[in-house]
Design a protein that fits this description.
This protein is an alpha+beta fold. It contains 3 helices and 2 strands.
């Protein structure tokens, strides 16, 4: 958890800031990060009995740089200001 959230690299935080950072890290861990031990599902998908989203995922395009579509369906966003907790977000149509 310390490495994922970059707590070893950041200056000391006040208690409230630390709690918010840890909460954000736990949300990322449980809802967005697939786990190998769970067959690619997230802990939240398993806990709530949902079908893992990776089973209906669209495979990425393959090819050489510059080939293929340039209008991607997703963009990378981050849950935190330090950009350590990435998530994929669907682009608006």
């Amino acid at each position: 958890m310390k490495d994922t959230l970059g707590l070893r690299l950041l200056r000391p935080l006040v208690a409230q800031d630390l709690m918010e950072k840890i909460e954000m890290g736990l949300v990322h861990y449980a809802y967005f990060r697939p786990h190998q031990g769970l067959g690619g599902a997230t802990p939240a998908e398993i806990y709530f009995g949902r079908t893992p989203s990776h089973l209906s995922a669209i495979p990425p395009p393959r090819g050489r740089p510059g080939e293929g579509p340039t209008d991607w369906l997703f963009r990378v966003e981050y849950l935190d200001a330090e950009r350590m907790l990435p998530v994929l977000a669907r682009k608006a149509a």
